[in-house]
Every structure is written in C-alpha cells, then in structure tokens.
Amino acid sequence: MLTRKSSRAIVLNKQNQIFLFRYTFDFFADKESIWITPGGALEEGESFEDALKRELFEEMGMELKEQAPFVFYRTPMYELKNGETVRSEERFYLIYCEDESFSYDGWSESETKRMTAGKWWSVEEIKQSEETFFSEDVVGIIERLSRGEIPKEPEEIV
Fold first, then answer.
1. Within the chain, what is the greatest distance between any pair of CA atoms?
2. 2-156: which CATH number, 3.40.630.30, 3.90.79.10, 3.10.129.10, 3.30.300.130?
C-alpha cells in the first residue's frame, strides 16, 4: 500500500473565515470535487514544515515566516482508478492571515488542471452549502479555533 504524506494549512482571516480551494480528484476511483485547505505532498527528503512553507508559497503566494502550530491530523484511505489503495497521512497547521489576497502564479500544471477556485468561507456559508469539504467537521474546527481553542497536542479529525 502506498502512503502519501502531506502538509495542509488551515488559513483563517480576521473574520474567522477559512480559505479553501475547490479541487477535483480525477485520479481517485470515485472522482469528486471537494473544498480543501492549501497544501500538498512532501517532496523527497522534505519535512512536513518545509512542505507547508513551499506549498503555501506555490498555491497562495504566501511566505510563512515563523513556525505554524501543528493542530490536527488525519489518515484517510483512498482508492485510485487502477484499484490501488493509498493511505494519506495529512498534518494540518494553523495560519492566521492578515493579507486576504492570494496568487495563482506558482501553480503547477497539475494544480491548474485540478484547482478550479479559491474562496474565503464563513461558517454560515459552509452550513448553508451543499458542497463537500475536506472534513466532516469543518464548522466545528473553525468555531473552536475562532474561540482560541488551539489543541496543545495535535488531534485527529475526520
């Protein structure tokens, strides 16, 4: 079984909105589009923290100057079109964002093909939406973090 390690960023603005990309997973057996956090796979020899910095710069044009807290993790399993199973090891880091602009300039060909939109989402918009999000408890995650309830140790999310 393949393992795919990735760093992801929970990016919140001053209004406690979360920034998400609409991403189409065309390589999974169940092709679906979901709203996901910025981030991606670790490259050869790269740490989770280095991957986070690289991915934020590539996907949003954001330069991470200090270490972000590692707050959540998850390990979902996915089936690829070829029948192979992939275990995803995802670490989520908390980023507070002053500048709400982002740039598509660093996107790879793969990202340009699969990421169809970027948007700041409020809790109310998510509650009213019929879209699929990276976590079943995205609202609870945002509400907790907005109240300053940052886990002292990383917690598992679904």
1. 43
2. 3.90.79.10
